[in-house]
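Render this sequence as a predicted structure.
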Amino acid sequence: IVPDYYKYIDYLLYSLGEVLSEIINLNIEWIFLYDVREKEFKQEEELKKTIKKYNLINYKIERIHGGSLSALFYILNYVETPYIFYLEHDFVFLKNNFNIAKIVEVFDKYSFVNKILFKKDGNTESLLWAYTDVDNNHIDFLQEEMITEIPLIQACYWSNNPHFIRLSFLEALSKKVYPTEYNNLFKENKIYSGAGGYEEPIIDLYKKEVSTKKWSDVKKFWGTFLYGELNESTYIAHTDASNRYDTECEQLGKDWIINVFNK
């Protein structure tokens, strides 16, 4: 979690509902990463109050310099668990009926599952990164029949919006995308990702591989899935802390704050 504004963390934690209770019961560690860059983070005490409000005990707060790319390298350097539940500060869950223990079970059981995403415009074929492979074959967008524990959809999709990811896959992917000197830049606090986050070069690689290889081969490495049923409405909405966007997803997030959080 990369909180720029503590109130957005309040929205996010509230939206998790029973999922948050499950996280607490499973004693999963929270790592709150905030970006200080050129100035000190002035809301740390407010953040601690918010954490206490939701009875989070197993947590730590870490400072980073350089946006979500720095968060990525923090994970690669310091996180040792096999899987990560990655959350961005200005998203909320419109639906929180997923079970983390079941998701972990799927990662444990099916080695071809590397990333489970929540797609902010719903479980449709809109806004995917590719629709055909090198042979012009249509890329599967199908309910995954082999996995029955949770509903998953095969998809050619990538985002750093809320997701679950296998750490070993993230490590292998990062070696493909980022030169080794990036890690030194991270340790020297000289890394910065800009507004696009760490996802842009990964998406570029994904597109390139799909355009030059068969989808059947590409998906063996990437193993990306959407959570939920085909054509199901979105699980997440963007509350847009930076006020840079104006799409249906942001409106859903703003409506959620008014109608659910502030009811």
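Summary. The chain has one domain: 67-261. The chain is about 40% helix and 15% strand.
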